[in-house]
Amino acid sequence: MIEKNYQPADIESRMSRIWEESGAFKAGRPERRDAAPFTIVIPPPNVTGSLHMGHALNNTLQDILCRFERMRGRDVLWQPGTDHAGIATQMVVERQLMERQEPGRRDLGRAKFLERVWQWKAESGDTIVNQLKRLGASCDWSRERFTMDEGLSRAVAKVFVELHREGLIYKDKRLVNWDPKLLTAISDLEVQQVEVKGSLWYLRYPIQGKNFSPDDPATFVVVATTRPETMLGDTAVAIHPENERIGHLIGQHVILPLVGRRIPIIGDDYADPEKGSGAVKITPAHDFNDFEVGKRHGLPQINVFDREGCMALVDNEDYLRGLPEGALMLAEELHNVDRFAARKKIVARLEDFGFLEKIEPNTHMVPHGDRSGVVIEPYLTDQWYVDAKTMAQPAIAAVRSGATSFVPKNWEKTYFEWMENIQPWCISRQLWWGHQIPAWYGPDGKVFVAETEDEAVGNALGYYVEQEVITPQQGREMAQDPAKREGFITRDEDVLDTWFSSGLWPFSTLGWPDETPEVKRYYPTNVLVTGWDIIFFWVARMMMMGLHFMKDAPFSTVYIHRLVRDEKGAKMSKSKGNVIDPLGVIDDFGADALRFALARGAALNHDIKLSPQLVETNRNFATKLWNACRFAEMNGCEKPDGFDPVNARETLNRWIAHETSRATREVTEAIEFYRFNDAANAIYRFVWNVYCDWYLELAKPVLMAEESAAKTETRAMIAWARDEILKLLHPFMPFITEELWAVTAKRDQLLVLAEWPRKASTVTPEQIAAMSMAGPGDPVIAPAMAALDAGDFSDPAAEAEIGWVVDLVTAIRSAKSEMNIPPATLIPLVLSGASAETKERAARWNDIVKRLARLAEITYADRPPEGAVQLLVRGEVVALPLKGVIDLSAEKARLDKEIVKADADIKRVDAKLGNEKFVANAPEEIVEEEKEKREAAVARKAKLQEALERLKMAS
Length: 955
Fold this sequence. Notes:
Elements: H1 8-22, E1 37-41, H2 53-71, E2 75-79, E3 81-82, H3 86-99, H4 105-108, H5 110-124, H6 127-135, E4 145-146, H7 150-165, E5 169-179, E6 184-186, E7 191-206, E8 220-225, E9 236-239, E10 253-255, E11 262-267, E12 279-282, H8 288-297, H9 317-320, H10 328-334, H11 339-352, E13 356-369, E14 377-386, H12 388-400, E15 405-407, H13 411-420, E16 425-426, E17 428-429, E18 439-441, E19 447-449, H14 453-466, H15 472-480, H16 482-485, E20 490-491, E21 495-496, H17 498-502, H18 505-508, H19 517-522, E22 525-531, H20 535-550, E23 555-561, E24 564-565, H21 582-589, H22 591-601, E25 608-609, H23 612-634, H24 651-672, H25 676-704, H26 709-729, H27 734-744, H28 765-773, H29 781-789, H30 796-818, E26 827-832, H31 836-844, H32 846-853, E27 855-861, E28 868-873, E29 876-881, H33 888-913, H34 916-921, H35 924-954
Parallel strand pairs: 1-2, 3-4, 9-11, 15-23, 22-23, 24-25, 26-27
Antiparallel strand pairs: 5-6, 5-14, 7-8, 7-13, 9-12, 10-11, 14-16, 17-21, 18-19, 18-20, 26-29, 28-29
């Protein structure tokens, strides 16, 4: 028995338990042993994470695909798990220690600190997993993985060692994004560009051989910089070779102000002759562009900061090299001074000596650490790198060949642009939590890379015995007693970038490097669902690693979804106060309503505008479905065993079978092509408009009549269509559909494992008729049976009749609305020049049409009466005589006025969109909002003009 009121919270907790206890989501079910596999790997959320709206969208779309394919009979593995999230997790535990006033990380030491992290993970690390379960994610939770599980750690070590052996992993001194607060290199993804109101300092660099005078421009070169504190590390000034104004200075030298070091003036295309003074300072150790210029010209790299962003000059050999005698005073004065405090001192000194020409206000983007919040420093350090350029080539080829394709396809261009210009991948992080780099160093710095410590120690000791650095006896003693080799052989303290281990996710989670049955069956995966922002960081890494180690691309399709924004199109952020918490939304409206709202908005290449009100609308849809099923139950609607809609005789019932078949085709094809919004909106329209508003409404007179064959058939058909709806809707709204499936009939099977409605092909009435007349072996039977087996039902005659009723009532209601006629007002209808077929339909459906369209009467005439508004319904004219019902002149004047307003709205938006400055500078969401306003105004104007034309014809 269906409860009177729909209560999502009660249903969701109960259904989650039923699914888990039944093992419904498990891959490799015995009955699916011979089924084709379908695999998706979850983008592993950070173990520190909490469900946000991006997670909700991403996992809803994955779940739609998994439930869809599971119902189509595939052996589905949706591989779940979490990422260890090096920086984030280490920060959480360090903050916890501080709040509890316990010893900090360095006081505890590495081993004790890592114990605390594992303890935290055991206590709190499953928060996000439980939240995903609340959303309804149908992952195989029995196979949950963590990027630091023992098996995955073994995979990481093997990959590192093999890539190092092949020369694809190496150590190098390069610039990295350095976080002076967290004291580690970070990835580009962990850097936020923040707009800052700063300054642009114009500095005078004296030309060597000329007597510097601030009043004589011929004695100096002007450079502009936003970071005057880095000038102490300048090793050149660059000018564009084609700069006619100052290009003649190329080849000369300047004297670095305050420092006194002689540095060259070089010619390089990097210097824009149209920007600033045309000359730029080159600081290879503190700017990524300058680093590349420095490589091209063989310039020295002078790092003037320490790890904490303070000046480090006194013991800095690179800085002191070539320093004129007596120039050490500045180094001592600035030593250990914070970079921003040093900036003020340096600028003041420059001004004192006449080297500061001017200062201009300058708003520019400054990189900040997304977790620490401090300004990121381009910092020159020794780090481990992957030769991403080499590894990217097969990954590029895989997409170019179509082995892997992006949906939408335009993201392939983004992928190619980045992959073809890929830089070395810095994989080392100066953290304790993570996969410690499997490299050990000997006393002379020689590195020994191995999968295990025993292997590395054995290799190292063998090497040093051979080199006669130690004796064979010492080697044996060190091998047997770790205490005796302490200080002689030490492990690299750094850990690997989390993207390194998550790049192995599609195969490490399946048991690789062992040749497990799971690797053979579920790799490669079918589709990856992810956001555009990690194409470079995760998608690219998985492509490179999968192709290198598995010799096959990790997925055949990459579906890229856009952002979830607020209802006005603004990006959600805590600072704006517009963040929508998915868990709060689920508490208020249920997980099904949130999932359906997200799916209905997930159009290709469009961000989703979401509001609690929109979710509430979809909660109302769930209530509509609930009430429709209750109506069916209260009217005794049950599907008898063996019921086949093909055998229905009533026109209305054949029509709903036809419409159900069409909805099945639309929903199935839309999901197959990743048009989630089209699929969701198709089932929404079918349930609300076709099934509830029309079919059940038109069936009421039959249900209220005496028992008859028509009534029995209608009850069965209502139940059959309801079941098909529950199947089609299940991937989007799993909780309510599973509940209704269970309570509407005695089922042997959960809906999650039920058979998907078979997609319609084209079966004509002629084929059906021919089948009934054909004898055994008749060639007409095979194609018709094949079409029926595909789940098709097509009855154009039933669609023509019921479709006419629907279109007629809809047209009358719309006309009333456009003319401002109250819905309850009874008006006459004249069928003008109606065909015999239409007259017969009108007679059969007379009472129902009059009731639904609120008509006083239906009459016939050869032509429309004077003063009647004419409507075209399926090729025939119907007329609404409105003289005396409305003031035609006043209504025309009102419509004229509304059209003028619509025109004004269109012109106002066109003026904005035609302004190049507005389009270039306005936020993307504002431009999109204006475009939507224009579309709405154009549509409104078209409807108004159509109504006006009808009135003119009536005059």
